Amino acid sequence: MKDSGDRQPLSEPLREASHAQSWKDVVLRLGVSVQQGLSMSEVEARQAQYGPNALKEAPRPGPLRRFFAQFADFLVLILIGAAAISAFLGEMVDATVIATIVVLNAIVSMIQEGKAEEALKSLEKLSAPMAKVIREGTLAVIEAKDIVPGDLVVLEAGDKVPADIRLVETHSLSCNESSLTGESVPVNKDADAVLPLDAVLAERVNMAYSGTVVTAGRGRGVVVCTGMNTEIGKIAGAIHSIAREKTPLQRNLERLGKTLGIAVLLICAGIFLLGVLRNEPPMEMFMVAVSLAVAAIPEGLPAVVTVVLAMGVERMAAQNAIIRRLPAVETLGSTTVICTDKTGTITQNNMVVVAAFAGNRLMATADVALGDTDGPGLDGIAVSQWDSDVVQLTISLAGAAMANDAMTSGDEGDQGFTGDPTEVALVEAAERAGIHKAVLDNGLPRVFEVPFDSSRKRMTTLHEMPDGRYLVWVKGAPEVVIPRCGFALVDEGGAEPYLRGRTVDAQTIASLVAGLENTRLAATDQVMARFRSADAFLAARGIRVIAVACKLIDRLVQDKQELESGLTLTGLLGMIDPPRPEAAEAVAKAKQAGVRPVLITGDNPVTALSIARMVGIADENTKAMSGSEISKISPDDLDRVLDEVGVYGRGAPEHKVAIVGAFRRLSLIHI
């Protein structure tokens, strides 16, 4: 290992290039052993060099600072001047009333902004509190803030990633990066991948980023960035660097105050001069002019504005919206463009099975609208309502639930499932159809498995049947499962396609699978073309498709090639992170109010455009643009395409800043 004294601070190009280098090169550059980790002397040197692994917080104003900040408004300054003049003239009642209004106005604003600050503090819990690292060959659990570049971090399912890490070893490792990229589906990681320099965050499968969560598998990696140098730190830095702008109301009130002040001064000066020209006593005319000036100042206006804005803040708080500064409430009423995220905002941040192709039927739930099936391969097949009593769908759901590692969680009566979101979605779809994973696992116990990994793109399980035979289930990406199928389960009128009233238990599934030889068809090009067309149809709408296949064997086999050949394709299951029930209505109301919603997400542009169409943000003419495309065009070109593009996918933080900047240049008020 290198001596820490020879180490130079990581330069920006090197930090950015970690995903574009092999892990061996990154480890060599950081001077760390992938077996022993860093020594304690190296850790201390790097802590002194790089500082703590924590996000810098912008200093929050205290109560006194918030209080005195309310007096920076121009109209308030005029009122303070009016109170001073009233006191000078001996009008103590007027002076007291004006001063009281100004002080109460400041107190109300200070208290309201204080509530917002406290609420925000409770939300700022994204950083991982603890982490597992290997130092001097020993595994230790330490506070995440003590991690340094070069630390060897161990990641397991359920861990929150404590820093930006270049992975050096992965075993079926996947991470939920929705908080950073907007991608609902966990990303399968591959330590051996070397990616292009311009690969966007969502495509960097050899990296694990601070604040994301490990959903499955395990792995190890070396820390390349900590604190404000992490991707989430860059976002925090960009937020802190944004200059606080005045709202339209503040600008209008300031303009009113200046106009009113100038007008009052001119009128009072004119009255004073006219009086003097008429030989009135100058002091008397001065007092008259000053009295008129005080009378002309609308001392009640700031109080009225503050009360109205405070009421708006309280109403927004009732809708779970936190507003830090009172004047920001008015901005909502002036908004012409809303730039919204997708995951968790428009969608539920929860994968759900919404479509299936089984029994020669293309079915969809009420969560999605798939549109027409015009096109090659699906002629004569209309989208029908979801019907879990269709035999082929029942078999597919059972297979998806059995070749599945999702686990039961929660108390009895309030049980759910935990694990990979894709697997949880499949099990939940089966449960809704009355197919219970626990029942099937007990009746058809798993005796062997070939786990899913990102290179195979499939999972295979072997289950013992009551008659002594074995049932093989394979689920995975259609492009790898379909070629391994010699047969397909379709409905050509040769068998009863429905399960009306039958209980779906292990015996039912066993008998249905045993009867497949009488109902399946050979996997001819014509038969499989329909499955491939259905896969393409769903994928074009941003739906992730899983193929399910099975076969019966007479003896226990553990050879992967033998298990995964000659399969019977039972069906395709499509899932998506569906829109929230209230999303379409909210979008419609925004449009009715003259506000244009724009979707900006780190998710795939195809998926983003599909979701945008479901909720009304986009129509058939709306275009989508990726983050890489934004990087290649000039700001002027971006300004010109704003009207045509309503969806931006694979957007990194810098792309979002560029889009918002373009709306600003066009003088559009946005949030």
Gross morphology is elongated
CATH level-four homologous superfamily name of the largest domain: Calcium-transporting ATPase, cytoplasmic domain N
* Helix count, DSSP H or I runs of 4 or more residues: 25
Radius of gyration over C-alpha positions, nearest whole angstrom: 32 Å
CATH class descriptor of the largest domain: Alpha Beta
SSE-based structural type: alpha+beta
How many discrete structural domains? 4
> DSSP strand (E) fraction?
15-25%
Q: Overall mean pLDDT score?
A: 83
CATH architecture of the largest domain: 3-Layer(aba) Sandwich
CATH topology of the largest domain: Calcium-transporting ATPase, cytoplasmic domain N
Please give the largest β-sheet.
10 strands, mixed
**Quaternary assembly:** single chain
Number of extended strands:
23
Would you identify the regions where 5 or more consecutive residues have pLDDT less than 50?
Answer: 1-14
Percent range for helical residues? 40-55%
The end-to-end distance, rounded to whole angstroms, is 50 Å
